Amino acid sequence: xxxxxxxLAHPNLANSxxxxxxxxxxxxxxxxxxxxxxxTYPDGVIDIDAEQTKLSSADVxxxxxxxxxxxxxxxxxxxxxxxxxxxxxxxxKGNALKGKQWLTVITTGGSKExxxxxxxxxxxxxxxxxxxxxxxxxxEMEFLPPFVAHSARNLSKNPDKLKHLAEQYQKFIHELQxxxxxxxxxxxLQTLNQxxxx
Length: 198
Prior knowledge:
The structure is a single chain. This protein is an alpha/beta fold. It contains nine helices and six strands; from the N terminus they run βαβααβαβααββααα. The chain has a single domain, classed as Flavodoxin domain (Rossmann fold). Strands 1, 2, 3, 4, 5 and 6 form a six-stranded parallel beta sheet that branches. The radius of gyration is 16 Å and the shape is globular. Keywords: Oxidoreductase.
C-alpha cells in the first residue's frame, strides 16, 4: 500500500464546507498524511527541510486547494518556490521526486461550463493547470488528471450531493493507495465530475 501526502492549502478551512468534508472523509486513513500549510505555518515561514522530509516518504503527493485567480493560494505558491529547489526537485542532481505521482484536487466557484473555450473563463481547467503540469514534468513526476469539484457554492448547499462527493473522494484515495488507478482513464474522472454537478 502506497503512502499519500496531502498538501492542504486553504486559508479558511473551518469555513470551507467542501474541503473540510473531503478531509473528514479520509483523516482516519493511516496511510494518508494531511499537511495543512496554513495551520503549520501561521507566520508564513516555511521549513524547507521539514517539507522535503515529508515528501521523501510519499508515493503520491496531492495538492488540495481552492482555485484562486486561476492558480493556488499564496502559501502554496511560496511552498513551490522554496521547497522545489534546484538539485533537489530538478536539475542535474535533482531526482528526489522522480517517479512520484502528482494530483491536483481543487474546488471552483464557477461551473464546469464556465471553464471552456466558449465559457466565461475562456480556458479549460486542464489548460489553466498547465504551470502545475510543467512543474511536475520538470520534477519527473507523473501529473494525474485533476480532481475538480465545480460550483462549490451550490454544492455546499446540498448535503446529499456533498456526502456523495466525499464518498467518491474517499474511493479515489483508496484507488491511489492500492495503485489501482489507471492514469490514462480520463473517462473515470469525467464521470466523477459529471456526478458532482448533477
